[in-house]
Give the backbone structure.
Amino acid sequence: MDRVRMLAAVYLLALAAVVAFHFVFNSFYRDALGAIDVWAVLDWPIALGTLLALAINYRRLRTRERNGAHATMRECLETGTAFYATVLLALWFFSNWFNFLAVGVEGEATVNAVVWALVDPLVVLVFAATGRGLWREGSRS
């Protein structure tokens, strides 16, 4: 099980790094690669990572709730924030992604572009935090 945790942690951390890099530096290579084309490829691993992070953070929240009285305020805040940030990410990401898949770039509204500007940094934060937590859990076991 520890290997699975470590693999999931590496996947989430690597994906967070790739998304952060592309989000910040895509304007430098936009003409050569096409930023939208790179996002279209990244959306599939991001979708998988979002579902993975949602499952992991839900499991952590349920575990913390089962331990109830033994949980510290910090643990309550960490697990609650991680889970609800992941839910927010999933709602924004899948709504925008399904819209993008249905209408393509031509049909993208300005509102969707603004939401993508919020989703991509949230991907980095959620994936990095979830991956880091998994890595710590795997190294302790």
Observations:
- The chain has one domain: 2-140.
- The mean pLDDT is 87.
